[in-house]
C-alpha cells in the first residue's frame, strides 16, 4: 500500500479536548467512544473512515467551543 493510500484507509484515532464533555454530546460524535480522563480532559476514540470524516469531527469540536488538545492515530490493538 502506498503512503497516500494508507492515509485514505480507515484508521483509529483519539481526539483529546479540554474539560469533561457532558454525555449528552456523545451523539454528535457518532460511533466514537467518549471517555472522561482523570486530568480533566475528554477523549474521543474510534475508527474514522477517511480524512473528510476526521475534518468533520474537528469542525464539531470547534463548533462546541472546546479546546482541542491533541489528535493521534492509535493502534487497533489496545495493548500497543
Would you kindly provide a brief summary of this structure?
The chain has 80 residues and is of the alpha+beta class.
Tell me what you see in this structure.
The protein has helices at 3-8, 51-64, and strands spanning 11-18, 33-36, 41-48, 68-73. It is globular and about 30 Å long. Helix content is 25%, strand content 32%. The protein has a single domain (3-73), classed as Alpha-Beta Plaits. With 80 residues, it is an alpha+beta fold. It has a 4-stranded antiparallel beta sheet with strand order 2-3-1-4, covered by helices on one side. The two termini are 22 Å apart.
Characteristic terms for this protein:
four-stranded antiparallel beta sheet, 32% strand, alpha+beta, 2 helices, Alpha-Beta Plaits, 80 residues
